[in-house]
Structures are given as C-alpha cells and as structure tokens.
Amino acid sequence: MRASAEEQISAFLANKPGVVADLCAAFTEQRINIRAVTVLDTVDIGTMRLVVDDVEAAKEALKVAGAAFVVVPVIAVPVRNKPGSFARAARTIANAGVNIEYVYGTAMPGADRTLVIFRVSDHQKALQLEFED
C-alpha cells in the first residue's frame, strides 16, 4: 500500500483557554471534518497542525478567525494497530533515505488501523514507497 498525499494546515494560535475550541467550532460551522490534529505549545503561541477534508474551506475559516497559518505537504499512511506496525512504516521511510521531520497519529483501542501523518524531507520519494498492508 502507498501513502496518500495530503495538505496539512499549521495554524498559529494564542496559547490560552478556548482558542482551540473556537477554531474547531468555526470548522464545524463550515462542515469541515478534522481527520488528524496535533497541538504543540510554547509560552505564548500554540501550533495546531491539521489534516482536514476541505483545505480551501479551512483556509477561509482561518482567515475569518484572523489566524496565521501555512499549508505544507505531508503523507498519510494507514498503519495497523498492532505492535511493530509503526516501526515498519518508519523503517520503510528510513531505508529509502528519507528523513521523518515529524509525525503524529493515534489509534482507538480495538481499532484495526490508525492514520499516521508524516512530514518528510522528500515528499515525492515517500509517496512512491510501498508500505505493509
């Protein structure tokens, strides 16, 4: 199985109560589904990384909210929810000489798979890799 190409939005938000909730509410109003998310914090600013089902609508919602953001390419790899599966996906990328710049994902207990989002040094090369099914 191959990874899919995705666009990730990194939104830069004030690090205070309610900001993430407000942004999610704005996405809800526009019927934007968040497929993957992680939030990183610093003292004053948080970075919310999102993969959504409608990037253009999300960009408009962020503009209306006055949030600064950037869009970057990432890859999404469905990984089995069992020991060693993430390690094999990471090894596949490493063996191709591609660096993993960052990664995030999660799995519900009992779920068969999880969607893992990778930001990599060579997007096109990573898209050509074959991952374990």
Describe this structure in words.
The chain is of the alpha+beta class and 133 residues long. It folds into 2 domains: 8-71, VC0802-like (2-Layer Sandwich); 74-127, 2-Layer Sandwich (VC0802-like). The protein has 4 helices and 6 strands. The chain has helices spanning 19-29, 55-65, 85-95, 123-127; strands spanning 4-14, 34-41, 45-52, 68-80, 100-104, 113-120. Strands 2-3-1-4-6-5 form a 6-stranded antiparallel sheet. A hairpin with an 8-residue loop joins strand 5 and strand 6. The longest helix has 11 residues, at 19-29. The chain is globular, with a radius of gyration of 16 Å. The model has no long low-confidence stretch (mean pLDDT 93).
Can you describe this structure in just a few lines?
The protein is an alpha+beta fold. Helices cover 29% and strands 40% of the residues. A hairpin with a 3-residue loop joins strand 2 (34-41) and strand 3.
C-alpha termini separation: 6 Å
CATH architecture of the largest domain: 2-Layer Sandwich
Radius of gyration: 16 Å
The helix count comes to: 4
**And the CATH topology of the largest domain?**
VC0802-like
Shape: globular
> Major beta sheet, specifics?
6 strands, antiparallel
Query: What is the overall pLDDT average?
Result: 93
Q: Strand share of the residues?
A: 35-45%
Strand order of the largest sheet: 2-3-1-4-6-5
By DSSP, the count of extended strands is 6
Provide the low-confidence segments as ranges: none
What share of the residues lie within helices?
Answer: 25-40%
Number of domains as seen in the coordinates: 2
N-to-C order of helices and strands: EHEEHEHEEH
At the first level of CATH, the class of the largest domain is Alpha Beta
